[in-house]
Design brief:
The chain is 55% helix and 16% strand. With 119 residues, the protein is an alpha+beta fold. Helix 4 (82-97) runs antiparallel to helix 5 (101-118).
Length: 119
Amino acid sequence: MRALTPLQNDDIRAALKAAEARTHLRFAVYVGRAEGARREFAERLHAALGAVADDAVLIMVDVDGRALEIVTGERARRFITDGACQLVAVSMAGAFAAGDLTGGLVTGISALAECATRG
C-alpha cells in the first residue's frame, strides 16, 4: 500500500474537522491492513475510540485487501443509517477503484456529515 502524502493527510484531516464541527459527532479514518476479519477489525478500532465511540463514525479502508467498512456508534447511528452508510460506501469504492483514495475519503466524510445533518 502506498503511503499518503502530507497534503493528502491534511485534506483528510480538514474533512474530518469540518464534519465534526457540522455534526458534533466524532469522525475517524483508518487506512491500513485489516487484521483478521475486516468487519470485526473495524469494530475493534471503533471501540478503541473509548468514551467517544457512541458519538463516532469510523471509516476503515484496507487498500491492499480491497476492504471498506463504516462503523457508527449508538448515538451516531440515530443520524446516519446503515442504508446511508451503504450508499456512501458505494460512492467511495468508485473513487477508490479509479485510484482516488483521498478524494473518496474526503467525499465520503462529507456525505456522511450531510446525512447526519439531514437526519
